[in-house]
Amino acid sequence: MVAGDVARLTVLSGPSGVGKGTVVAEVRRRYPGVWVSVSATTRRPRPGEVDGVQYHFVDDAEFDRLIATDGLLEWAEYAGNRYGTPVAPLRERLAAGAPALLEIELQGARQVRARDPQAQLVFLAPPSWAELVSRLAGRGSEPPAVQERRLALAQAELDAAGEFDVVVVNDDVARAADELVGLLTAPSPGLVPGE
């Protein structure tokens, strides 16, 4: 962004297995200046995940404290775990006039829309249902019952794509990352940069 541009909160959501984390990692690699919020979660780390990088891994007591002290912009339970966006770093980023990117689930995206109607909601969609099923099965990190639950949730999330401002199809990670950064840095509709 250049001086005078309007800060924008952009929310990326989509079904489990669509590649949100992969696209965000590509955004970070190709555009290191883009700030991505790190969510808190009660989920156990997957192999290779680092606390404070992919997520802030917290226990239930700490998550309850964040809720009680209004320390989360949004939070949701998904597949038996809770996820939430710490509000303080996000407020600091937007107050500095810089765009912010959140990677969150559908429930959280709906909460952000309710709290901040100007937020831009971007839905990351798979190229096809078969591709999404293949990606979820390929993870190998979850038992079949959890995968089945995720597929049922994924179908419901795909049905909600119409609630989002923009749909980006993740058929090519680099292209999806470029499209997301373009959306993130574009001026908000109805706002004139520099005002």
From TrEMBL:
Its main location: cytoplasm. Its EC number is 2.7.4.8. ATP binds at G14, P15, S16, G17, V18, G19, K20, G21. PROSITE patterns: GUANYLATE_KINASE_1, GUANYLATE_KINASE_2. GO terms for cellular component: cytosol. HAMAP family: Guanylate_kinase. Essential for recycling GMP and indirectly, cGMP. Belongs to the guanylate kinase family. This is Guanylate kinase. The lineage of its organism: Bacteria, Bacillati, Actinomycetota, Actinomycetes, Geodermatophilales.
